[in-house]
Amino acid sequence: MDLLRRPLDPIFRPRSVAVVGASRSRQSLGWAIVHNLVDFQFAGAIYPVNPKADAIHSLKCYPSLSAVPDPIDLAIVTVPQPLVEGVIDEGLAAGVAGFVVITAGFAEVGPAGRAAETRLRERLRAAGVRMIGPNCMGVINTEADVALNATFAPTPPLPGSIGFVSQSGALGVAILNVAAELGTGLTQFVSMGNKADVSGNDLLEHWEDDPATRVIAMYLESFGNPRRFTEIAKRVGRKKPILVVKSGRTAAGARAASSHTGALAGTDVTVSAFLEQCGVLRAETIQELFDVARALDRCPLPEGNRVAIVTNAGGPAIMATDACVNLGLAMAELAPATRARLAEFLPATASTANPVDMIASAGVEEYRRTLAALLEDPAVDAALVVNVTPILSDPRDILDAVGEVAAGASKPVLAVMMATDAFYEGLKGALHLPPVYRFPEPAARALAQLVRYAAWRRRPEQAPPLFAFDDERIAAVLARPGTDGYLPPADAFALLEACGIPVARHAVAADPAGAAAAAAALGFPAVIKAIAPGLVHKTEARAVLLGLPDAAAVEAAAAELAGRLGRAGAPPEGFLVQEQVASGVETIFGVSTDPRYGPVLMFGLGGKYVEVFRDVRFGVPPMTRAEALDVVRGIRGVALLDGARGEAGADSAELAEVLLRLAQLVESRPEIVELDVNPFLAGADGRSRAVDVRVRVATAGRADRGG
Fold it and tell me: How far is CA 392 from CA 360, 384, 460, 485, in A?
């Protein structure tokens, strides 16, 4: 088999490595990298390159890359920044197949460094050669036939099944330390640095069909091409799980937004929605990432969210139960036959209900037989085993018994062993055992992520639906925004109608008399709203009057609004008159534009308190029906959509379709930068209506839509 069969194999599976800038000084990166290559017993040839040394680490040293007599697959570059471009040129001329540039001082330091980095990328891409870095920590491959540790990290990695990429070199050192401390093994590790060439997207594709890599873990500070990431992650995630820790959760200086959607959708919310739709699991911390990665690596995926807990202590079982329920897991209802089976061998004082408390005297056989019985119960999808170190049993014996039962099961088993540091020290490298946690909460979080990923994997692959729009009408209304970028109210409603979204019947009048005539044509009771430049939130400005019973009341209301707004210095230009929609759940649909990710869709409970309750969910286009329904059904107040306390509910499928129609609209019309439909009164049997809508489009000279 050709070792260099894929684009990144010269970097991850090299047959020879040159270290340019190798040094005899133990305080240098060049010395540390050569040391790690030797110490990790790299399977290929190592060529230190330093014109001032004859030998380093007992290896013959060469003055330059061109002086190395054999082919070089990978060159590790640690020379000072001004020399890097010359090294790359020399390496390309010598036929080097891949580069890792450790050296800093490029785009991260300013325009001159950015220009140098661009030149490197252009040279490499013209030659068809790939590069990791610059400003990175290096790469690792623990496979026995490669054994590559081309980093300056002080802690050697353990072999395992997790591919890990870190955008931060400094954090990469910490990641390797944590992995070693937890006994978590890696297949490959890469510190991307500035991502001048190889990106996270490239690494996802590299690991996609790598049989040794079962789980992909990523620490990211940015997405170079979010839309491309979406495409790749959705495909790769069908084969193996992807875990991400994304920093930059509180991006300062975010664009101020006048829409409800813009106020509620920050960059971090966008990232979470973006990852969730891709099937990517997001961890809050590096510790949580490893907690979840261990579970994904060692456990089968569950069929559902019903968990059984087995323990020898009541307190930890209560903690585990609370954690599971709070994370959306369900406590399994054990079958009567299962409880009877447990009662045959557990003490009379034990609890055979879930959680199963075997009491403190439980030993190896009680754990073995109880876990086996629970896993055979059809009502159980996963098991959480909790053990507080007993007096009469060795916790390692108990864990080994749990591992034997788990190995023969098709359901995930996670263990909580509240034991000593010495116990955990003995677990390092024991990759055949179930994932082990010190406390119930991280175990429950890991199990919840397994359940979430399994549910995403079970979802059938779908294509986004395509609706027939009135494209001519859409183009016409978008061509005539006001000077502030907002569409006039009638045009905003027309835009929704052109997309097939139901709206309340309405008319625009120039004066109070015209408003009365329009209301008479629409029917009573009526609603009147003032139209004025800069009037964004009408309720706050007291520019809306409801429940008007006849034409005289409408005319008087219009005159009242004209006087009130005129005295406030914002006289109305006209009035929007609407039928009053009788009933429905107040919901909101919205679109905001993120400078990196493009349009972001929002759905939630609407009305004037939307920013108080903040019961909203987000998604990014394009969306499938299943994804849109997940957004709609994901709000905390979903019971209102189902009908609460005898009230009529709403059609969730119809709400999902409205979201899909808006997704198609903003994907096809990038000039739309903000859109709020609030409230959208959601009912059943075709009674839903958009009652208020606001649309802002990009005006000449503005760069509202991000890439």
Answer: 10, 22, 50, 75
Alpha-carbon distance of 88 to 83, in angstroms, equals 9
Nearest in space to 696 (alpha carbons), one of 618, 571, 591, 596:
591
Contact between 148 and 98 under an 8 Å Cβ cutoff? The reply is: no
Between CA 397 and CA 365 the distance in angstroms is: 10
CB within 8 Å of 703: residues ≥ 6 apart: none
pLDDT in tens, 356-414: 999 999 999 999 999 999 999 999 999 999 999 876 788 999 999 999 999 999 999 99
In sequence order, what E strands does 532-622 have? Answer: 544-548, 574-579, 585-594, 598-605, 616-619
Res. 647: pLDDT tops 80:
no
8 Å CB contact between 386 and 317: yes
Reference 48, options 80, 92, 18; nearest CA is: 18
CATH no., domain 505-580? 3.30.1490.20
CA distances (Å), 542 to each of 524, 527, 546, 550, in order?
21, 13, 11, 20
Q: How far apart are CA 371 and CA 242, in angstroms?
A: 29
Q: Report the b/e string of 7-23 with b at 16+ CB within 10 A.
A: bbbbbbbbbbbbbbbbb
Rounded (5°) CA angle 161-166-170? 125
Tens digits of residue pLDDT in 159-185: 999 999 998 877 888 889 888 888 899
Structural tokens at position 49: 């390159």
144 phi and psi angles, rounded to 5 deg: -60, -35
> CB count, 10 Å around CB of 503?
21
- Amino acid at position 622, single letter: P
Same fold, 300-458 and 505-580: no
Q: Is the distance from CB of 103 to CB of 84 less than 8 angstroms? A: yes
Distance CA 326, CA 158 (A): 34
Mention every residue, 6+ apart, whose C-beta is less than 8 A from residue 629.
652, 653, 656
Query: What whole-number distance in Å separates Cα of residue 53 and Cα of residue 61?
Result: 6
Predicted confidence (pLDDT) per residue in 262-311, tens digit: 444 456 777 888 888 889 999 998 899 999 999 999 999 999 999 999 99
The candidate with the shortest Cα–Cα distance to 279, out of 226, 236, 325, is: 236
Contact 580, 527 (CB under 8 A): yes
Name the pTM for this structure. 0.86
Q: At what angle do helices 336-343 and 364-376 cross, to 10 degrees?
A: 170
Calpha distance 546→540 (Å, rounded)? 14
Name which of 579, 678, 542, 628 is nearest 259 in CA terms.
Answer: 678
Question: Would you give the distance in Å from CA 321 to the centre of its chain?
Answer: 26
Query: Which residue is it, tokens 């929002």?
Result: 602
Rounded Cα gap, residues 676 and 669, in angstroms: 15
Torsion of CA 343, 345, 351, 354, to 10 degrees: -80
Tokens (6 digits) for 82 = 């001004």
**Backbone dihedral region for residue 110 (phi beyond 0: left; psi -120 to 50: alpha; all else: beta):** left
> Directed axis angle between helix 471-478 and helix 489-498, to 10°?
160
Specify the CATH superfamily of domain 300-458: Succinyl-CoA synthetase domains (3.40.50.261)
Q: Which amino acid is located at 189 in the chain? A: F
Helix, strand or coil for residue 309? strand
Task: Tell me the domain boundaries of the chain.
Answer: 300-458, 505-580
For the chain, report the end-to-end CA distance as a whole number of angstroms.
Answer: 41
Kindly report, residue by residue over 669-702, the tens digit of the pLDDT.
999 999 999 899 998 877 899 999 999 998 754 4
> Cα(584)–Cα(67) distance, rounded to whole angstroms?
79
